[in-house]
Specification:
single chain; 672 residues; alpha+beta; Nucleotidyltransferase, domain 5; eight-stranded mixed β-sheet; 15 helices; globular
């Protein structure tokens, strides 16, 4: 099977990973059918052998000198090291042997060296980060000055593009070491122990003598994985390694013409997960030459605010539509509740560990085990909820770009997203947001359709007016202009007069800044191809304004005058029953009679009314903001607390261009 992708003009190769499950296999020598648990047991034996050998190899080379030699990419005689980690380790002479009495072939050693080499290469970044922080150790580690921030970023390679949270986390790690030992560590290898080797089999490092992967001719969604697995935990000879054929069902995300690569097997909880890499051709995303762009701004309950702008031939920029929002107040409330529950469980388990100590017969040992299992369940639920939220938000943003026929998505840079000065509760919720995961998923989905995702500096995107760049005045709401707040923005410039939602003004600024600075776009990471605009140029920023659109006079834009001219007429109704029942509701099968009136609430066992309330998306001709979940202070998304599900509490505004495909102007500019 060829591992190269045939590319046409305007295409690029894209490598992604899909997860599959090994549901059984057949031992080829005897023809014995193996269940999924039996295959998981054999894969686990092989993964345990590999993990032990990786740990031995890391322990022998977890030094600054060895990591620096591997990261330099040159061996002792000046030859360039191969890109594959196992070949580089063999060039350097870093061999590893199996435990005494255990027989493994050379391909298993390859997998061990590949996994260890990847871990050692990744340690170079942490070594450079730690060295830069130690070199510029601040006078007050808890609060760096502006000059100290500049110094530490200069001391770290590519420190200008490094998030501040990473430097802060490394500083706290070093501070903990100082409080324990009374001195600064020498380097990262004294600060950290050798990384733990994961239980997995990296089949990408082997050839056909250890594993093969073939796609079925009659069904492209089925593949056959053949590999050698041990028949006992400690194989004594090559006869204890047998070929096992395992059929795999490919997920629907894998194209039929994709080139498949050998997977990485991960045994867990009696199952074997196969991380299957595949390569296929996708439209090439361009760095420059964009005329239609989608701007994305971040929020808390309103997780994403997005809208499209167009750059015309005279270099002027206008907005396409009024924008949209992805609101996840209920999901964020559920995630916040799970976080607090996990913190309480962590505190309980820590207290039990302190009480139990080394006594294995303590009466709290059983309770401690139950609490640990419950804590892991809560952590898994949080992980699943964050994954669902990240994929849903990313899919929504990419769909907005596709609907607007945009070729680029400009996202606010995450380096400035630090929870400071907002209180402990709000700061914690901001820190727990899955913004980084959303951006990664957005890049993954946008690459399939050839849309570029570029990060843009967030400086003054919410502070300045998108039409005249004058600092905005923020208030509570449009009908409360004198009440201090942050949600609604009003331009004090008499010649402009723009006002709207703060986030809607921010995405206009982000998109306009990206279009005017697109010639300065760089590839920040060569390995991943991530693109970014590193800094704002004041000369270009002066042109990053959204020109106000003229009001349309189309029939759908005209509105009838609804001003009140007289007293409201009393409306008679033919309703024969009162709106609220005065008689007791019908008793249930297990309830006594004479129950209090329940009004309009249903008497059957359905979901709570709060779980079904505000679930529709209401739009008008003036704006396209979702009016689903209210964001007032008194509102509490009870549906999320009562377990009504994920999709009932993530509200996404549909693209405006679906209902108004010809409209490229903002109707009702003063309402965002």
């Amino acid at each position: 099977m060829s591992r190269k992708v045939a590319l046409a003009d305007g295409q690029s190769a894209r490598t992604a990973t899909a997860r599959a499950l090994l549901r059984g296999g057949v031992e080829e020598k005897t023809g014995e059918a193996l269940s999924a648990r039996a295959v998981a047991e054999r894969v686990g034996w092989g993964a345990d052998l590999a993990a032990g050998m990786v740990a031995d190899l890391l322990a022998g080379h977890w030094t600054a000198a060895d990591v620096a030699v591997l990261a330099a990419g040159v061996d002792g005689v000046g030859r360039r090291l191969p890109s594959k980690a196992w070949m580089a380790l063999r060039r350097l002479g870093w061999d590893v042997s199996a435990p005494a009495g255990v027989k493994v072939n050379d391909r298993v050693v390859r997998m061990v060296q590949e996994q260890a080499g990847r871990l050692l290469r990744s340690a170079q970044h942490r070594a450079e980060l730690t060295a830069g922080v130690l070199k510029t150790w601040p006078a007050d580690p808890a609060k760096r000055t502006a000059a100290e921030w500049d110094a530490v970023r200069e001391a770290i390679p590519d420190g200008r593009s490094l998030p501040g949270s990473v430097i802060k986390a490394r500083t706290r790690h070093i501070t903990a070491f100082v409080s324990t030992h009374g001195r600064l560590p020498v380097d990262v290898f004294e600060l950290e122990d050798a990384p733990r080797a994961a239980r997995m089999l990296v089949l990408a490092a082997v050839d056909r003598q250890q594993a093969t992967l073939e796609r079925a001719e009659d069904n492209p969604a089925r593949v056959l994985l053949r590999l050698q697995l041990p028949t006992r935990p400690d194989p004594r000879s090559y006869a204890d390694w047998q070929w096992v054929a395992c059929p795999l069902a490919l997920p629907s995300t894998v194209p039929a013409d994709a080139v498949l690569h050998l997977p990485t097997l991960r045994p867990k909880d009696g199952k074997v997960y196969a991380d299957l890499s595949f390569s296929h051709a996708v439209p090439q995303a361009e760095r420059t030459g964009h005329t239609v762009a989608l701007g994305v701004d971040w929020g808390l309950n309103t997780l994403l605010s997005a809208g499209a702008v167009r750059r015309h031939g005279d270099q002027s920029i206008t907005a396409l539509g009024a924008g949209a929002q992805f609101r996840a107040a209920g999901v964020m409330a559920r995630q916040h509740r799970l976080r607090r529950q996990g913190e309480r469980l962590h505190a309980k388990t820590d207290a039990y560990e302190h009480l139990v100590g080394e006594d294995e017969d303590h009466r709290l040992v059983a309770k401690h085990a139950v609490l640990k299992a419950e804590r892991q369940c809560v952590a898994d639920r949080r992980t699943g909820l964050n994954d669902a939220l990240a994929w849903s938000a990313a899919r929504w943003a990419v769909d907005q770009a596709i609907a607007a026929r945009s070729t680029v998505i400009y996202v606010e840079d995450l380096r400035s997203m630090e929870a400071k000065g907002m209180g402990r509760t709000l700061g914690t919720r901001l820190s727990q947001a899955v913004r980084g995961q959303i951006v990664d998923n957005m890049r993954h989905l946008a690459a399939e359709v050839g849309i570029a995702v570029v990060t843009v500096p967030a400086r003054n995107t919410s502070k300045h007016c998108p039409q005249c760049l004058v600092p905005l005045r923020h208030c509570k709401a449009p009908d409360r202009p004198t009440t201090p707040g942050w949600k609604w923005a009003i331009c004090p410039n008499p010649g402009c007069g723009w006002q709207g939602d703060r986030d809607h003004g921010a995405w206009r600024r982000i998109a306009a800044r990206g279009l005017t600075h697109q010639d300065k776009t760089i590839v920040a990471d060569r390995a991943s191809g991530h693109m970014a605009i590193p800094r704002v140029i004041d000369k270009l920023e002066a042109d990053a304004v959204v020109r106000p659109a003229t009001l349309t006079t189309t029939p759908e834009a005209r509105r009838a005058d609804r001003s009140k001219t007289g007293p409201t007429r009393h409306r008679t109704t033919s309703r024969s029953v009162p709106r609220r029942r005065g008689a007791p509701s019908t008793p249930g099968p297990h309830r006594p009679a004479g129950q209090r009136p329940e009004g309009h609430a249903h008497t059957d066992r359905r979901l709570p009314r709060a779980a079904r309330r505000y679930q529709g998306v209401r739009t008008t001709n003036v704006h396209t903001i979702s009016s689903s979940t209210p964001t007032t202070r008194r509102h509490r998304p009870r549906g999320a607390a009562l377990g009504a599900g994920f999709h009932m509490h993530a509200h996404a505004t549909p693209p405006r261009w679906e209902t108004h495909p010809q409209s490229e102007t903002i109707t009702g500019l003063r309402i965002a």
